[in-house]
Amino acid sequence: MRCILLIVWLVLPYLAPVLGALEFVGQGIKDALGEYMLTDIMTDANTGIEFADGEDGFPAFKFLSTADVKSPYQMLLPEKLYEFAILITYRQGSLKGGYLFSVVNPLDTVVQLGVHLSPVVKNSYNVTLVYALPDHSPGRKLASFAVDHVTDKWNSIAFQVYNDKVVFYYDCKVRNTTAVVRDPFVLAFESASTLYIGQAGSIIGGHFELSSNQRPATTSKQQPPTTISKLNISQHINEQYSCR
Ligand SMILES: *[C@@H]1O[C@H](CO)[C@@H](O)[C@H](O)[C@H]1NC(C)=O
Ligand SMILES: *[C@@H]1O[C@H](CO)[C@@H](O)[C@H](O)[C@H]1NC(C)=O
Ligand SMILES: *[C@@H]1O[C@H](CO)[C@@H](O)[C@H](O)[C@H]1NC(C)=O
């Protein structure tokens, strides 16, 4: 590991001119690589989280109804996103849906960037990329895609967010493409915004909970809570996402 860091530091000066436009200066190695693992904000200090095994040996996090995971977004994310990708692996425990993650303005009233799962209706739900500037109305959707709900299934989703389109991957295959207008094209976060995982703050909510018909009944097997494993935002869009 130390060796890899050394190499990165040796190579950085040569990358600097190239990456200058991405404003990595002062933000360190993570930003230079442009790959942000949002689960990095989870620590032992977070309440309502249990550790679990994810797919492919990834660590996974169970979101109990008391979960409250948040951090100043600047701890992890850059101030601006241009073209970017979001990769998430999750297993739903709730039919009520919720926010897998969100970056919310300082007043906690507008989700600037987030991925929302709608309630399940007739075994189907919508995965929505919420995207707004601070003065936009709350809940603005950039793209929404319908997905079948399968109990206990690990779902892998990815969004490639281009200037003019959003490509949605489900289980490592392109599922759909939507033309979008990003106006302005740059997503600039307000400086005191909050990064939440498994919710969108106290005002908007979007907390994952067990729905009432899943609460521990005397006979039925209790549904495990919603579990999130991979949760990455990348400033580089790979042309293709595959599972391996
Ligand atoms: C997620 O980001 C981390 C670095 O922050 C990287 O090591 C890992 O390979 C990324 N995973 C995927 C699937 O892109
Ligand atoms: C998904 O979104 C479409 C279009 O907005 C809507 O008609 C449909 O009812 C939604 N499905 C669910 C399960 O919310
Ligand atoms: C792709 O999106 C269009 C429009 O939203 C929809 O009609 C179509 O069914 C979607 N295709 C798939 C495979 O989900």
TrEMBL record:
Keyword flag Acyltransferase: no
InterPro entries, A to Z: ConA-like_dom_sf, TSPN-like_N
The organism of origin for this protein: Drosophila grimshawi (Hawaiian fruit fly)
Stored Gene3D superfamilies: 2.60.120.200
Signal peptide positions (record): 1-20
Domain Thrombospondin-like N-terminal, chain residue ranges per copy: 35-207
Keywords, comma-separated and alphabetical: Repeat, Signal
Keyword match Signal: yes
Protein name per UniProt: GH15384
